Amino acid sequence: MAKCPLCGTALDWGELIEQMLVIEDAEGLFKDRERFMATFESFVFRCPHCGEEFYGKNLPTREAEKVFALLNEFKGSIDWENKKVRLRLNSLLALDTMLEQWDKKVKG
Ligand SMILES: [Zn+2]
C-alpha cells in the first residue's frame, strides 16, 4: 500500500489522484498511460497527515499502474465536475492483491 515517505502514514489513492485532477488537460492525461505515468512520477503530492510534499516516484509504481487501469476500466470513475474519484481505489487494490495471491496459491 502507498505510504507517505516522510511520516509513514498509509495514503488513500483516491485522495492522491484527486490532487492530480487539477492538472491542465487532466482528462486527456488520464486516458494516456505513458503520459500519466511520466506525470505521476514527477508530480508533487502533499501528504494530508504531515503536510509534507513528495514526488510520485516515491510511491509504488505498480500500484500507480493498477490505479490507472482501474480508473479506465470503470466508466464514470472520476467525477470531473466536482474533481472527485468515485472509486474506492484502496479497497479495489487490496482485492486485486488478494486475488493475485489466491491465484498463485492455486497454481503453485
Ligand atoms: Zn506524511
Automatic annotation (TrEMBL):
Q: Which domain of life is it from?
A: Archaea
Query: What is the protein's name according to its record?
Result: Uncharacterized protein
Instruction: Look up and give the organism this protein is from.
Output: Thermococcus cleftensis (strain DSM 27260 / KACC 17922 / CL1)
Taxonomic placement: Archaea, Methanobacteriati, Methanobacteriota, Thermococci, Thermococcales
